[in-house]
Write a structure and sequence with these properties.
single chain, 451 residues, alpha+beta, Glycosyltransferase, four-stranded antiparallel β-sheet, three-stranded antiparallel β-sheet
Length: 451
């Protein structure tokens, strides 16, 4: 194969690296740290001097990044844990559509969870739980469905789909003629997973192209930012989407396919620093869903490290976020591994934050209400921090949560901090993160691991 052909094959990776380089230059420039509009319709606020932005980032200069703990092999326990996680996908994959239930036996899904499924399949292949042919068959079946699903307004995937029929649905899994709109973050997570599919299984590249060519991805990128589509009074409203952590993770995913995400990848103009357990925690200055002070959770930093590999900025953010959780344990004796998580009781979903709603360790509902009684020591966060940093504390977390694994169903969300009872909800995202974490321990970041 000629040098020109090799360059053409590698073009998406070269674009990704070039975009990351530009992003890092922006980090060094350290500009702007006040609030930006919550929606594209709002007027911009006056931006601060560069020296103010520099002082925000200076808080992280003293953070010594923890070394990554890539072991290079899997232990017997690792494989046993991975088999438990994979059983969830055996149980919840629909044979007709190839899609996977978002939670055990609940036949609805989003693009975020479908991306998680693809990551789970790739991880299971890397760990030797399934053969490459099965991995390609599973992903290929799901992509056949993704290539034929009805899109919201013929533009982009709807926010939710019925797993059994691939029909557009609302959040109650009821049929929806038009749909709910689109989530730019969810689709970006799916795009990142498709990038991993291309990297791992080049012969599926044509199917990836078929899917992505049908989606009008340029509709959700505007001036270097992600834009979501939401229905308000029957009309489509386009809103800037993403907050600190999630926004940069999604930007990296879109960069894989050459999208210019310079504003989404940049952080300083929308970031403040809050002290939690003596550590600087990066917090978004914008409101969550335009109502509640934004929150910082582990999830996007975990995904960034496991899938793409940390950059010079995100490793410092992740180190501080992890260390704050360990420090809380040292101070209180309460095992702490928090992130967004499903619940087995109403309201069924919360964001367990390091900082959120204006306070440390706040647990917030989707509507922005406090619900600290449902703080969960989460399985996925424990496995992920252990894979990434491998400290004595992360090993203690995994040891405490290991008995929860159910070989017949998969891994539940974790343990309620208030009473020590199991949060028994079993989901795609938790089991996918467990698999990705165990694959990382053996091979390093998934997008960089050799096929």
């Amino acid at each position: 194969m000629s040098f020109r052909d090799n360059l053409i094959k590698a073009r998406s990776h070269l674009v990704f690296l070039a975009a990351l380089g530009c992003g890092l230059l922006l980090v060094i420039a350290l500009e702007n740290v006040e609030k930006t509009p919550a929606t594209t319709a709002e007027a911009p606020t006056e931006q601060p001097a560069a020296s103010e932005a520099a002082s925000v980032m200076a808080a992280f200069e003293a953070i010594t990044p923890l070394p990554l703990a890539v072991v290079g092999q899997s232990s017997a326990d690792d494989i046993a844990y991975a088999k438990i996680a994979w059983q969830y996908f055996v149980n919840n994959t629909n044979e007709t559509t190839g899609l996977v239930n978002s939670a055990d036996k609940y036949p609805s899904t989003t693009m975020w969870e479908t991306g998680s499924y693809f990551v789970a399949v790739i991880s299971a292949d890397m760990l030797g739980l399934i053969e490459p042919d099965e991995a390609k068959a599973r992903i290929g079946k799901a992509m056949q469905t993704l290539a034929t699903i009805r899109l919201f307004d013929d533009l982009l995937p709807n926010k939710a789909y019925n797993v059994q029929t691939a029909e557009l649905v609302d959040y109650g899994n009821k049929p929806s003629e038009r749909g709910l709109g689109w989530s730019a973050l969810d689709i970006a997570r799916m795009v990142g997973a498709l990038g991993q599919v291309k990297h791992r299984y080049p012969d599926l590249g044509a199917q990836v192209a078929t899917v992505m060519d049908k989606w009008h991805l340029s509709e959700m990128v505007e001036d270097g930012q992600l834009v979501g589509g939401n229905i308000a009074d029957g009309q489509l409203r386009r809103d800037q989407e993403g907050r600190l952590g999630y926004e940069q993770y999604a930007a990296k995913a879109m960069m894989l396919f050459g999208y210019d995400m310079y504003r989404a990848y940049h952080t300083e103009e929308t970031m403040m620093v809050q002290d939690v357990e003596g550590l600087p925690i990066p917090v978004d200055t914008r409101l969550h869903r335009n109502t509640t002070p934004a929150f910082t959770v582990s999830e996007p930093y975990i995904f960034d490290g496991l899938e793409f590999g940390f950059d010079a900025r995100s490793i410092r953010f992740a180190t501080a976020i992890y260390k704050a959780q360990e420090a809380r344990f040292r101070e209180t004796g309460i095992l702490t591994a928090v992130s967004e998580s499903h619940l087995d009781v109403a309201p069924y979903f919360v964001y367990s934050s390091i900082w959120g709603g204006g306070a440390p360790w706040a647990v917030m509902t989707f509507k922005g209400e406090r619900l600290d009684s449902k703080r969960t020591t989460t399985t996925k966060t424990a496995f992920a921090w252990d894979a990434l940093f491998g400290t004595d504390y992360t090993r203690e977390l995994v040891t405490a949560l290991a008995p929860l694994g159910d070989p017949e169903r998969g891994w539940p969300e974790g343990i309620y901090e208030a009473d020590g009872k199991s949060n028994s909800s079993v989901t795609t995202n938790t089991n996918a993160v467990v698999l990705a974490s165990l694959a990382f321990k053996a091979h390093g970041p998934l997008i960089r691991a050799e096929p």
